[in-house]
Design goal:
With 310 residues, the protein is an alpha/beta fold. It has ten helices and 14 strands. The protein has two domains: 148 residues, Rossmann fold (3-Layer(aba) Sandwich), CATH 3.40.50.10740; 137 residues, 3-Layer(bba) Sandwich (Glucose Oxidase, domain 1), CATH 3.50.30. The strands form two sheets. An eight-stranded mixed beta sheet has the order 6-14-13-8-9-10-11-7. Strands 2-1-3-4-5-12 form a six-stranded mixed beta sheet, with helices on both faces. α10 links the parallel β10 and β11.
Length: 310
């Protein structure tokens, strides 16, 4: 499967019940409590998945066992009373549980917004490929940027409740790595997770026809080079329409990162916008995946043909 438009979920309304799950790493309890307070402040009714506060007994980088994390996500998604699912954080672990989900049951359930980023990229890809559902690359509900940055929270809130107000996303920090305009279906997320998905069962075959979002954290330039080279050698970037680059927090001096991005992506012959303001930075835009959009790399804008939610 290449980039294709996905089914969009209904927008949220005051009073809606939403679920917070931990599909990857364990949570800091105080951050989760603060995130729940934010959601309540939006007049939502957040419920915490049964194992979201757990930590795996031996693999301390995981929140609960794989089967328990998968069960939490599946029950939240398949519960008709739950209108959205928020990942509490990223970390690592979604790859371990994604094949434990009952995708027949998930496809049969009504679509709803799934919000997250980083390791949640694995789930964004799975819901696109296996369920045909649009998701939201947005901040984690117990994540640092969500808790501290007003602009991050407001952009997510508007995307969920009033998506027509954020169809045109303007990034004040964006600039062209390769100038130009391109149209396609949005996809992507964390570079490392996209690269490690290549060759796995039912993985997307490539980004042809897509506007590819890429960002990462804690990867030095040579490892960013390695991941991009993997995608290039696999033919995964063949036919991509354009690329939108987010934050590269902890990846070293940005001029060194930029050299790698220009070297590996500049030869594709497509528009590339850099420093677009999503991902692991100090502020994070919410960007819908699986929705047709137009990128103007020169102006630093991403304009969606349709609202993120309906």
């Amino acid at each position: 499967m290449t980039a294709a438009e996905q089914v969009r979920a209904p927008r949220l309304r005051p009073g809606d019940r939403v679920a917070v799950v931990a599909p990857s790493g364990p949570l800091a309890p105080e951050r989760l409590d603060r995130g729940l307070d934010v959601l309540r402040g939006w007049d939502l009714d957040p419920v915490v998945a049964p194992h979201a506060r757990d930590t795996h007994p031996t693999l301390r980088y995981l929140a609960a066992a794989d089967e328990e994390r998968a069960r939490d996500l599946q029950e939240a998604w398949c519960d008709p009373a739950v209108k959205a699912v928020f990942a509490a954080r990223g970390g690592y672990g979604a790859q371990r549980m994604v094949d434990l989900l009952d995708w027949d049951a998930l496809r049969a359930a009504a679509p709803k917004p799934l919000v997250g980023f980083s390791d949640v990229t694995v789930l964004h890809e799975a819901f696109a490929v296996r369920a045909g559902v649009s998701t939201l690359h947005g901040p984690a509900a117990a994540g640092e940027v969500f808790l501290k940055d007003d602009a991050t929270r407001e952009h997510l809130r508007r995307t969920l409740f009033a998506p027509e107000t954020v169809r045109a996303v303007v990034s004040p920090t964006a600039r062209p790595l390769v100038p130009g305009r391109a149209s396609g279906i949005t996809l992507g997320g964390c570079l490392t997770m996209l690269a490690t998905e290549v060759g796995t069962p039912r993985a997307r075959r490539g980004a042809a026809g897509g506007l590819l979002l890429l960002e990462d954290i804690g990867e030095p330039p040579y490892r960013i080079d390695r991941a991009l080279t993997q995608l290039l050698r696999a033919g995964w970037l063949d036919g991509v329409a354009g690329i939108v680059l987010g934050s590269w927090s902890g990846c070293g001096p940005y001029d060194r990162v930029r050299e790698v991005l220009a070297d590996r992506l500049g030869g594709l012959g497509v528009p590339v916008a850099e420093e677009f303001g999503f991902g692991h930075g100090d502020s994070a835009l919410t960007l819908p995946l699986g929705v047709p959009a137009e990128l103007d790399a020169t102006a630093g804008t991403l304009t969606f043909e349709r609202p993120a939610t309906v």
